[in-house]
Design a protein that fits this description.
Layout (H helix, E strand, L loop, with lengths): L12 H17 L3 H7 L4 H8 L7 H11 L3 H17 L28 H34 L1
Helix pairs in contact: 1-4, 1-5, 2-3, 4-5
Length: about 150
């Protein structure tokens, strides 16, 4: 793992194994962190945090990396299982006493359209069609009203 900074000694074994595998997968792509950020919905700095075990990656980031690396579905599924085990064991950052406003980890960014699950994309498309239908109906009623006023 040549250029990687050493992982913290106190990492749980599940986290260490997952991050090491994540680093190997990233190296397999041949992409820099900048290029990886450009090909996913996650910034260079986010990937830096994920690959240095500062913060657990969102499931969608792992899925995106698996896709870019060309993993077969069975391999990608095993990677997802490793992610689940690692996230459960991931050490949580300490919060100052009484400070509930300090975030534990960055929230998942909005999924890009190409990573949206098919059933959610279908619901959104259906909702869009209904909206267009309603707008078209309102427009037709408005035209009829204007025509009635002009003729009457």
């Amino acid at each position: 793992m040549g250029g990687w900074q050493p992982l913290p000694d106190d990492l749980p074994p599940e986290v260490r194994h997952f991050v090491e595998q994540l680093r190997l997968l990233k190296d397999r792509t041949g992409l820099s962190l900048v290029a990886l950020g450009a090909r996913t919905a996650y910034s260079k700095s986010s990937w830096h945090r994920y690959l240095n075990a500062t913060q657990p990656p969102p499931r969608q980031a792992v899925t995106a990396l698996c896709r870019i690396a060309g993993l077969e579905s069975a391999e990608a599924e095993r990677f997802t299982v490793r992610w689940e085990l690692a996230v459960q064991a991931w050490p949580r950052p300490a919060r100052p006493a009484g400070d509930e406003s300090a975030p534990e980890y960055e929230d998942d960014p909005t999924l890009p359209w190409w990573d949206t699950p098919e059933e959610a994309a279908g619901r959104r498309a259906g909702a869009g069609l209904i909206l267009y239908g309603v707008l078209l109906l309102v427009l037709m009623l408005l035209i009829l009203l204007v025509a009635a006023v002009a003729l009457g």
